[in-house]
């Protein structure tokens, strides 16, 4: 079967702050652990969305080498399957288990690869994966901005985090393919642009505009330019490590997920300092830049904006992003899906999870009481209007998805009772 993937997601970020002393768990903050059945019912019965970006925080399931707690994963993914909701399995979203520490740990890639293999063996019916979410953002916020996890502010810390994160992503893909040879990897990643404020800012803006590609360059085996190669080598990447990325990539199994928010574009001054510029180019133009670099099918994997005082600001943004998706399609770029992220409101993303304030951000299709927001109603109508129109008019708007094999629960699978209850 094939389909255009209208999608949403359930926010599962889990970084640590306060030098590792405190864990931020968005699923807890958004009460998903209490309302997960209701959340899945909204996806299936109200929105009528068939694909869902979803994963349980890594720290909850990966307890140590060869030690896993699958209890909640069995319940949640088992329920998704009974509902015929196709998960895009999100395995690592901004945080690692305490026993790993943070992204500076050189053991992380191998350990994460082993986890991905165990996950794929546990849920062999899952075909779509995002092994590591937003690799560039994760490395930047953890090791360049000093906000999460290792909380470093150095180029060396950034390069170390980035090479470990991307290697972990690649090793996970290799391990998943051993279990599910037809797996497809939707690499949800930041897409942005840096605008020079003045002629003196051109050089730092050009540097940042090459640096923004680093995670995907390494992930897809795209040779970086001489300036970026020197940057990587000067900050701890060895020749052997660089050669790994050039030779072990799995680009042919990938869909390039482009996440775009109004804050993704920046003004750059002559010292290299950046500040949000708001939308200048927009999703269509920035996606064109990424597509011309990698020549991969595209999915709009994240966007949102606050509801706003008028109550219509999010609807306006939804329509704007959808118009950009159609423009990408009409320009001949193969776009296969669109995502409003996330299903419900989020908590503390207005400060990028740097503190635990408990401030609700009205970004979701539903509020935290699971009542629809105006943008939720608008998205539902958009899906109804366009679901059967796009495939007939597109250059490449569908993704082949193998029919799920008959379910066979692992021994001791705690999701058996849940599946029985939900039939």
UniProtKB/TrEMBL annotation:
Please give the Gene Ontology molecular function terms for this protein. Answer: hydrolase activity, hydrolyzing O-glycosyl compounds
Name under which the protein is recorded: Glycoside hydrolase family 1
What is a biological process (GO) this protein takes part in? Answer: carbohydrate metabolic process
- Record keywords, A-Z: Hydrolase
Q: Establish whether keyword Hydrolase is in the entry.
A: yes
This protein's species is Methylocystis echinoides
The record's section on Gene3D superfamilies has: Glycosidases (3.20.20.80)
Tell me the superkingdom of the source. Answer: Bacteria
């Amino acid at each position: 079967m094939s389909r255009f993937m209208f999608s949403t997601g359930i926010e599962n970020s889990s970084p640590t702050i306060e030098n590792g002393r405190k864990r931020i768990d968005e699923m807890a903050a958004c009460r998903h652990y209490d309302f997960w059945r209701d959340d899945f019912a909204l996806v299936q019965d109200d929105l009528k969305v068939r694909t869902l970006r979803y994963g349980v925080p890594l720290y909850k399931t990966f307890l140590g080498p060869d030690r896993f707690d699958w209890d909640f994963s069995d319940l949640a993914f088992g329920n998704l399957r009974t509902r015929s909701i196709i998960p895009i399995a999100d395995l690592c979203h901004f945080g690692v288990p305490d026993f790993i520490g943070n992204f500076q740990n050189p053991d992380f890639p191998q350990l994460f690869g082993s986890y991905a293999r165990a996950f794929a063996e546990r849920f062999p019916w899952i075909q779509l994966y995002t092994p590591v979410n937003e690799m560039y953002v994760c490395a930047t916020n953890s090791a360049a901005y000093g906000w999460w996890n290792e909380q470093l502010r150095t180029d060396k810390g950034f390069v170390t985090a980035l090479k470990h994160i991307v290697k972990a992503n690649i090793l996970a893909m290799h391990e998943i393919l051993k279990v599910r040879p037809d797996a497809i990897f939707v690499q949800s990643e930041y897409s942005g642009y840096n605008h020079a404020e003045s002629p003196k800012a051109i050089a730092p803006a050009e540097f940042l505009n090459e640096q923004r590609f680093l995670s995907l360059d390494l992930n897809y085996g795209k040779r970086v330019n001489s300036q970026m190669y020197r940057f990587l080598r000067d900050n701890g990447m060895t020749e052997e490590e660089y050669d790994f990325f050039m030779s072990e990539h799995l680009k042919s199994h990938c869909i390039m997920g482009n996440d775009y928010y109004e804050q993704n574009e920046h003004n750059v001054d002559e010292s290299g300092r950046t500040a949000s510029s708001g939308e200048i180019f927009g999703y269509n133009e920035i996606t064109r830049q990424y597509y011309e670099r990698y020549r991969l099918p595209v999915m709009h994997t994240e966007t949102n904006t606050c509801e706003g005082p008028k109550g219509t600001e999010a609807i306006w943004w939804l329509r704007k992003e959808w118009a950009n998706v159609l423009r990408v399609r009409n320009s001949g770029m193969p776009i296969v899906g669109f995502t409003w992220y996330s299903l419900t409101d989020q908590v503390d993303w207005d400060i990028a999870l740097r503190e635990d304030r408990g401030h609700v951000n009205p970004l979701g299709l539903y509020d935290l009481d699971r009542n629809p927001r105006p943008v939720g109603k608008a998205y539902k109508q958009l899906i109804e209007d366009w679901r059967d129109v796009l495939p007939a008019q597109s250059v490449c708007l569908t993704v082949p998805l193998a029919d799920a094999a008959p379910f066979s629960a692992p021994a001791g699978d705690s999701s058996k009772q849940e599946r029985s209850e939900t039939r």
